[in-house]
Amino acid sequence: MATNNTKKVSLSPAQINEQLQVILNKTASAENYQLEAETVKTYNLIVNIEQSLPGKEKGLSNYYLLFNAWIRWLSDWKNYSLNLMHRRRLIGHLEQQLGKGRFILEIYPYSSKLYGIKTEGWKTLIQLHEALDYMTEYDCKRLAAFVNRRRWSELKKLVAEYQERGSQWKELSLHFQQTKANPTHENHTRGRYYDLEKVFTACNQRNFGGKMARPKVIHWSPRVNHSTMGSYNINEDILMINRGLDRPDVPAYVLDFVMYHELLHKALGIKTSGTRKMAHTKEFRELEQSHPDYERAQSFIQKNAKRL
Prior knowledge:
The chain has helices at residues 13-28, 32-52, 62-74, 77-98, 137-149, 152-165, 168-177, 196-208, 252-268, 282-289, 294-304; strands spanning 103-108, 115-120, 123-129, 217-220, 230-233, 238-241, 271-273, 276-278. It is α/β, with parallel strands linked by helices and 308 residues long. The chain folds into two domains: 13-163, no CATH class; 196-304, 2-Layer Sandwich (Zincin-like), CATH 3.30.2010.10. A three-stranded mixed beta sheet has the order 1-3-2. A three-stranded mixed beta sheet has the order 4-6-5, with helices on one face. Strand 2 (115-120) and strand 3 form a beta hairpin. Helix 4 packs across helix 5 (137-149) and helix 9 (252-268) crosses helix 11.
């Protein structure tokens, strides 16, 4: 798309991130007659940073790995354009609601949360996950209004609605999740009421004919999570189940379904369509729905997610 004639950089990830947030916001705020030049200039900078990343990533921290993944993602022109479009929408609506210079906007994939809002002096710090890039103009307008009026319950509902409407945010979130380094988790499978080793064995026999290879690590999540029932890291072969499911009132078929869902990720991997990485493909959804307890397990999770 654009040629790169800039010099290589030698700053830490934290320093580059801090500077890049400012540059990306400035680019997104550029006037129309400046926008094209600023867009290409910033893109060249990102490509330059990407070329400066270490070739070997073994032993790097999660922060460093996620930063590298984010830079590589941004170095694709389509992803970079999506990020800028989202920033431009948000900045316009935030300036209308809060006033120019009254907020700090940061968009990146580091946090496990999709958003975070806090006040720093007379400015409002707004941190958003890259997975929110697919928000519509209307949703960006609502987000800015809720932040200005401090309507946190409505903001939470807005994000929840965004999650329910499509899988794009999940694919993008999962893309960055796969880059995390191998945590020091051991196979802590035994919970208070359920043993994940037994859940895996039963699920494997019931749904995969006993032919599914056991993930290298299976463990309960460190904390209860009200939105994610489980996860599978394909790079590290680590399967995690939400600790909130380790309760006597959670039916065994729910654990079986969640385990099945995550093992499907192991079985099918991540597909690539153009520049987009997809975990929840049509094939995945069809297999997921073939689970004998799909409907009642989904119903239980949807009704009880907030209390798990």
